[in-house]
Amino acid sequence: MTRSPHFVLLALLGLAATAGCGSARKGAEYAARASLADPGTAEFRNVTINTEGVVCGEVNGRHKQPGVTGFRRYAFYSHTGHFLIEPLAVTDTALSEAALRCRSPTGGSPAGSICVDLEKLRLARIAHNEFERRHGYDCS
To answer: Which of 5, 13, 50, 51 has the fewest CB atoms nearer than 10 Å to its CB?
Structure first.
């Protein structure tokens, strides 16, 4: 039985696509492991690859932020090597409490350091919102 040139071409394209997905997934796992305090603790779940080569999933392990455990979402852009991991969420309560501490007399604590913490929380909220936007667009 002879195969048509079109069949051979489609088979080769299928192999190339599969190889590309495998390397994209491996790149995503490498980047996700590098974001952990202990790369050997990485567990992965819900990993998908969209048609543009963006690998989305969740990783669990010992994270670099102390006390943070549980699965966190990520996106790996295989065409650029860019990696995003879900930042910690900042609640409205945390922001309100930090704002109150910043505006009130501090009783010995330098007010400047409390206000710096407030600014860090605001920036963390912005980073989390941006992650949500990007992840929602690329991974849904």
So the answer is: 51
